[in-house]
Amino acid sequence: MVKITDVARHAGVSPSTVSYALSGKRPISQMTRQRIESSIRELGYRPHAGARALASSRSNVLALVVPLRAGIHVPVVMQFAVSVVTTARGHDHDVLLLTQEEGEEGLRRVADTALVDALIVMDVQLRDPRLPLLRSLDRPSVLIGFPQEPDGLTCVDLDFRAAGELCVERLARLGHQVVALVGSPPEVYVRKTAFAQRVVQGYTAAADRNGMSSCVDPCEAAPGAARRVAERLLSEQPALTGVVVHNEAVLEPLIEAFEQLGLRVPGDLSIIAICPDELAESLRVPVTSVALPSAELGARAVELLTKKLDGAAVPEATLLPPRLTDRASTAPRNAS
Predict the structure, then answer these.
(1) This prediction's pTM
(2) How many CA atoms lie within 13 Å of 256's alpha carbon, on the beta-carbon side?
(3) Tens of pLDDT along 79-111?
C-alpha cells in the first residue's frame, strides 16, 4: 500500500506538504501542488478516509437504512444493497448498512454524528413516522419508495401501481375474467408498506375497469402457506384462471401447489409475477413477470444523493415504468 511518505519522497517534498496539499489547510505553490498530484497519480495513492474527511469536511459514507422487519424478503433487499454499495464506490463513498428497526430514533442517532454524509431509506410506509425527521435533517436523503405525501422529499421507485395494472391488463387481454392477487405477508399490509399497497391499488383498479372478478390474498413467506392459499382460492373461486403473485418467496411453491391440486400452468391457470427477472427465468415453468429493477433503483438512489451532496437540483419524484416480459406461464383462457 502506497503511503503519504512514499508520495512525499517521490515528489521531493516533506510529508507535511503532501498533507497540506490534500487538506487545503495551508497554501502551497501551484508548481509544488502539480508535482504532488503527479506523484499521487503515478504511484496510485489513495488518501484514507480520515484524510478525505479533512479535505472535504465529509465522511464519504452514505447510510443505507433498511430495517429487516417481519415479512421482508431478504434476498431482494440484498440486491438493492449490492447495487447501492457498488454505485457508491464509483463515487468514492462507502456505505453504512443500518438494519435495526429503530425508526426515527435510529435515524436521529446516526444523523446527529459525523458518521454519514447522507441517507438512503428503504421499506417506506404510506404514513412513515420517519418522514418529519427526514424533512428537518441538515443532510440530504433519498427514499427508495413513495409515502402517501412525498412533498419535500426525494423519492425513487418502480411505479408499483402501474405494475399491478399491467399484470391485470395482460390477463384481461388473454381472456381471463376471474383473477386473484397472492400478495405479500400480512404484516407488510398491516404496516401499510407503500409498494405493497400500490400494487393492490393498481391490481384492483384494472380488474374493476375490465369487469373482472378479483380478490386479494396475503400470504406468509412459507411453502405451507402457499399450499393453503392455493386450496382456499380454488375453493372460493372455482372459476379462477389468472393469478398475479407479488411475493417472491412463495412463487415456486405456489405453482407447485396449484399443479398438485390438478391445474396445469398455463393450460388451466395463467400466472404473472412481480419479481426479479432472474427468479422468473429460473423456474421450471418460466414465469411471465414485471421486473423488479433493484439494481437500477439502487443506482438511481445513489446518483440522486451524490448530486444533492454537490448542491445540484434533482427531481423530487422518479418513477420507473414497469416492464413486462411474456414467458411460458401465461396463455389465453381455456388454452389446451
Answers:
(1) 0.81
(2) 13
(3) 999 999 999 999 889 998 888 766 677 777 777
